[in-house]
Design brief:
Length: 107
């Protein structure tokens, strides 16, 4: 009967192996949820930021349609040649120079 008592004593001294996998899995799920919440919160803050104010002295942005002639949507050589001929490079250069002066004045 002695071998039976040793066997039971040995079983009692061995700690039971409870599911560490469940604990690790729970921690991973919680970490993913926290990181997802932080990501969502930061994206919401970025979307709510207002546009920067216009600084006095800055040129008011205009749409390209106001500064250039109407261009053809065709991709034929004749249409492209007509678009290039219709472009007033002096006006474009004057506009670029005016924008450059505004930037230099702000520095």
């Amino acid at each position: 009967m002695e071998p039976n008592t040793n066997n039971t004593a040995q079983q009692e001294t061995t700690p039971p192996n409870h599911g560490m996998g469940a604990l690790v899995g729970t921690l991973i799920v919680l970490a993913v949820l926290v990181l997802g919440g932080v990501y969502f919160f930061l994206n919401q803050q970025m979307a709510e930021q207002p546009t920067p104010p216009v600084i006095l002295g800055d040129a008011i942005p205009t749409s390209p349609e106001q500064n250039s002639p109407a261009l053809s949507t065709s991709d034929t050589v004749d249409a492209i040649d007509a678009d290039v001929s219709a472009t007033d490079l002096n006006q474009l250069e004057a506009q670029i120079d005016a924008d450059l002066k505004v930037v230099e004045a702000s520095l």
